[in-house]
């Protein structure tokens, strides 16, 4: 398992937290998602063979947020 911290812009409220948590959490190989609005980060515990960082970033962007 790996832990990746991704800088994300555009998150402002609990709706943002839920949207990212649900979308990224649904990816195969992801075991945990934590969103920090103040730090503008998403921390993901994942199996890099099943859920690569690029795949996680793409999922966040698909939700309408920008990767910094």
Can you tell me about this structure?
There is one protein chain. 32% of the residues lie in helices and 34% in strands. Strands 2-3-1-4 form a four-stranded antiparallel β-sheet, with helices on one face. A hairpin with a 4-residue loop joins β2 (30-36) and β3 (41-46). It contains two helices and four strands. By secondary structure, the chain is of the alpha+beta class. The chain has helices at 14-25, 53-62, and strands at 2-9, 30-36, 41-46, 66-67.
Low-confidence stretches: none
Number of distinct beta strands: 4
Please give the order of strands in the largest beta sheet.
2-3-1-4
Structural class determined from secondary elements: alpha+beta
Strand content: 25-35%
* N-to-C CA distance: 24 Å
Overall 3D shape? globular
Order of helices and strands: EHEEHE
**Overall average pLDDT:** 97
Q: Supply the number of helical segments.
A: 2
Largest sheet: 4 strands, antiparallel
Report helical residue fraction: 25-40%
Measured on Cα atoms, how large is the radius of gyration?
A: 11 Å
Which key features would you list for this structure?
68 residues; alpha+beta; 4 strands; globular
Topology (SSEs and partners):
Layout: E1 2-9, H1 14-25, E2 30-36, E3 41-46, H2 53-62, E4 66-67
Short description:
With 68 residues, the protein is α+β, with helices and mostly antiparallel strands. It is 32% helix and 34% strand. It has 2 helices and 4 strands.
């Amino acid at each position: 398992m790996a832990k990746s911290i991704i800088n994300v812009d555009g998150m402002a409220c609990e709706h943002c937290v839920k949207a990212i948590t649900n979308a990224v959490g649904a990816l195969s190989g992801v075991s945990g998602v934590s969103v920090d609005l103040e730090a503008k980060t998403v921390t993901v515990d994942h199996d890099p063979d099943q859920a690569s960082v690029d795949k996680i970033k793409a999922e966040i962007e698909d939700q309408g947020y920008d990767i910094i």
